Design the sequence.
């Protein structure tokens, strides 16, 4: 996504970077941002992990990165690029909605999150979910979402606990992810109402 942002709005990104640098980043943030953007995904993940505390938040000395990402993420031009880049994730989520028979906003949110974070529902996860479904034919959608979240959790490998807390928070509608409490309806307007 960042390469698309730079292709469409390089001057705008440079302007935002310079605002953060002037606020006291202490070094050339733009140069490091370009280096990170050019890294292989595993390297970029390692770069981010090295700058985070145990709660997966940027350490205080790297706070300028939070400010930068918030500014970039709040920009309408850059949000348009993100929405465009996320289109295939939404298409995947909608295919899962149809194939699993889900209807709610919360289901769409969970399936979108799975598509973004995990890429897909792997065969082993689908098998765990389907096995649960055989035993729970009369389950309501909320119960099915929780079961799917639990089935997908192991796809996270060494991050299974983090993946599971995130997926369960969406499936149940509330929870704690990386030490922060969320309520989907209150925080994002996501309910069990039918998805549009």
Sequence:
């Amino acid at each position: 996504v960042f390469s698309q942002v730079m292709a469409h709005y390089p001057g705008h990104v440079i302007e935002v970077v310079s605002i953060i640098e002037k606020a006291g980043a202490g070094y050339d943030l733009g140069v490091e941002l370009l280096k990170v953007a050019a890294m292989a995904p595993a390297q970029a993940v390692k770069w981010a992990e090295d700058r985070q505390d145990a709660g997966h938040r940027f350490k205080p000395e790297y706070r300028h990165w939070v400010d930068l990402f918030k500014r970039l993420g709040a920009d309408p031009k850059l949000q348009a690029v993100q929405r465009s880049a996320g289109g295939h994730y939404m298409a995947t989520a909608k295919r899962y909605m149809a194939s699993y028979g889900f209807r709610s906003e919360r289901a769409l949110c969970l399936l979108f999150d799975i598509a973004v974070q995990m890429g897909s529902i792997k065969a082993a996860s689908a098998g765990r979910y389907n096995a649960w479904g055989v035993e729970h034919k009369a389950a309501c959608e909320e119960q099915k979402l929780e079961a799917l979240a639990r089935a997908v959790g192991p796809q996270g490998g060494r991050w299974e606990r983090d993946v599971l807390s995130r997926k369960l928070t969406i499936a149940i509608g509330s929870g704690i992810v990386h030490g922060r409490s969320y309520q989907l309806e209150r925080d994002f307007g996501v309910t069990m109402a039918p998805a549009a």
User: Anything to note?
Assistant: The chain has twelve helices and two strands.
